[in-house]
Fold this protein.
Amino acid sequence: MKNETIILGHGSGGKLSHDLIDKYFLPHLKNSILENLDDSAVFDLNDSLLAFTTDSYVVEPIFFPGGDIGKLAVCGTVNDLCMSGAEPLYLSCGFIIEEGFSFDDLEKIVISIKQSADESNVKVIAGDTKVVAKRSADKLFINTSGIGFLRKDYKISGSSAVVGDKVILSGYIGDHGIAVMSERHGLSFETKIKSDCAPLNNIVRNILNEGLGVHVLRDPTRGGLAAVLNEIARQSCVTVYINEDKIPVREEVMGACEIMGLDPLYIANEGKFVAFAAPEDADKTLEIIRSCKYGESAQIIGEVKEKSKGKVILKTSIGGERIVDMPSGLLLPRIC
């Protein structure tokens, strides 16, 4: 039998990533907390409900329009915590640095981490540094872990969507992935496309403080909106219908996708989220999101219509319907 090996597609956040987890990680590590497969692990400790998450960042290039690997690391971990309904509090930060990396660039990234942590109102309280030989890494990799508190009156999970829920998207999709790819390949467009990298905890806090019926929160990073909606549909065993005309995509991003043969539904984002809200609370939830920084362009893009094994259906702008599949391969490598 041919010896199978890891390929880049296993890190795409799509079908190959899920297959990797299901075949090699869950059989050995599965437990009642891990098997939920949400962005953060939620657990009870001494009658306090906590959320814990970890992530690694290998984006290339490490500086891109609208951000850098340091800002990405903080915002990505903060967002994973608040997508469980948690208030992010503390982060750890580990650096794997390639020999020959510039001190000036390292300081810029550490300053960016500090600025992003201040905006998110979190503290970096632990860290680690390793240096590896030239050609043993690609400039700099960062791992961050984060912890936050949850309120016990909320259960927010990818498995909590119910028939009737409205699907709210907090703004334009595809900005991050196209910004990174344009910088990587030296592509130029009439308008500079910037990453949407941003912390979302302030928006989530404002939603939860209103006590609204929000059942699911998830940020569409690797694999984009298509991947995250498929994950939620499968976890909750529902069919999600979305309207193409309601999904906000910048003209520049759409143009770049057309040039590169990409679908914006599958492009990574780093400052957007989807919320599944009870129909009676959807308009109020949308109003709150739009009133916040980073949520001004939010839209209700669809709804949950029926129970199923889990699928996503797009109502196209010309009146037809098509199934939106989980991404099967690698569209944009090293995007986060």
Q: What stands out?
A: The chain has two domains: 31-149, 166-323.
